Amino acid sequence: MSGDSVIELTSLSKRYGSTAAVDELDWSGGRGVIGLLGPNGAGKSTLLRMLATVLSQDSGTIRVFGLDPAVAAERLAIRRRLGYLPQEAGLYRNFSAYDLVDYVAVLKEITDRTTRRDEVRRVLADVGLTDEMHRRIRTLSGGMQRRVALAAALLGHPDLLVLDEPAAGLDPDQRLRMRTVLSDVGQRATVLLSTHQTDEVAAFCQRVLILDRGRLLFDGTPRELAGRATDRVWISDVPEAGALRSWVTGDGDIRNIGTPPTGATVVEPTLDDGYLLITTEVGVRT
Amino acid sequence: MTSVDQWHVSNHELERYVNHTVPTFARASVEAHLLECDRCRSELNLLRSTAAPDGDDDDVWLRIADRIDVTGRPLRSSTTALRVSTSSPLLLAATLSVAVGVVIGVAIAAAVAPRASLPLFVMLAPLAPVVGAVLAFQTGIDPAGQLAMATPLASGRLPYLRALLSSGAALVAVAVASVFVPVGLDDVAVWLLPGLALTAFVVAVSTWVDPRRVALTLACGWALLVAMWSWGPRRRTISLDLSNLAVERQSVQLMLVAVTLGSAAVTFLRRHELPGWRSR
Predict the structure, then answer these.
(1) Domain ranges of chain A
(2) Rg of chain B over all Cα atoms, to the nearest angstrom
(3) Which of A15, A16, A45, A54 to mutate to test the interface with B (most CBs of B within 10 A)?
(4) What are A120-156's pLDDT values in tens digits?
(5) What angle do CA B254, B255, B258 make, to 5 degrees?
(6) What's the predicted TM-score (pTM) here?
(7) Which end of chain A offers a freer environment for a tag, N or C, measured as fewer CB atoms within 10 Å?
(8) May I ask the CATH class of domain A1-81+159-222?
(9) B226 to chain A nearest CA, in Å?
């Protein structure tokens, strides 16, 4: 393993028929919270599933903690240090939240009953489900069910957390709690999460990746992402024909990204601007 | 819970227990009594509430239960394995449906169309345990769904333990169903052999390809073969007595044993390659 890299990907590819879900991806990452942005079908879930060792690649290499998930013994070693939250967990709905997380704890080889109980209570408290822990999953709201799955992913203090849209269905309070918990985990471990929300990335990710059609379009800090749109965003009263994207803001102004005309009112870019500029430019080029 | 005897832990002993100054040998005895005695437990709670107002009584009792329940590690790990293996309500329901379906199907056939009961039994006997094993390998039957896939235990012994239990239950159902057909009690064990061999074969092949495909192909092939033997136009010229095939032909039995053992060996060598638990 080179340097502090927890994940190392080399020419990683995965295809579904003629569609490349992940296309010749080279990337490495270490400790901290890393946000993975991209439109639907960008290959985010495919990439996360491969990193979570549940999907094999077509070509290229994956190293997690310097281990190869294609080798059975090394895959097992990775899984012992991994927490994974799939996009659709598919939890059995007649278990209570406690029983379900307890069951996953057994699957994670936390066999000592006392340790397991303490750990299950800890993770349920982390996601704010202490009061609902004995309710059956089918009686919980979608957001609560998502938090049960997140709690299960947090079991055993994993060194790598792979989370596929962890904020989906959470209300603002719960998102704030999730950010706090994941930021805390990110102090000592690697947290890789996919999201559609740039504000999520801005709030607590140290690093952001943009994936589109299986290719990595951006890798940097949230500030650098916003910086990509410096001098490329302007406000106008009418839609600009030369803009790559234009939309009406809450103030009734037209916000444009692209190459501003002379004399345009250039404004401070946001993360959204950076993201839209990068993904739109690629769309125009292809 | 009722009081176990006339003896109760003295206040002095309880205080020592709360302060962790009871000798180890006496501590176990006090804990065993506390678990059964409401009165002493109330006394203890009173003492604890004075000594540690923030104490969590639930936790205390759970910990006491843990200490008393401690058993040898091998037993604990095997009971855990059994508990986890049987903790899939979906698999239990599916296995039960297969088992009950086999018994009821053969019983109804024996009552309504006695001549069809034996072919039906011969058709179902090897396939029921195969279905049980295939069900056990589906990731969807795990209570934790996709979450389970990335855990160490789920990718190791768990699917195999479940397959063993599920196909075992199906084999028991086959043995029960044999009561309704003229197989003879002595031959029941022999009739379980094709099921065992076929299941072991499917499990072994499952380390390469989706077990559902293998099972479906085998099921269709076997059903067709039995149907041809039983009702086809050349049934008299073939003149195979199905009920005696596995019983009287020792070569067939030896072959089935060889298939079972060979498949088991292949499965052991390729035990980490279950495709359902790591998609391609």
Answers:
(1) 1-81+159-222, 89-157, 225-285
(2) 27
(3) A54
(4) 999 999 999 999 999 999 999 989 999 999 999 999 9
(5) 90
(6) 0.76
(7) C
(8) alpha beta
(9) 39
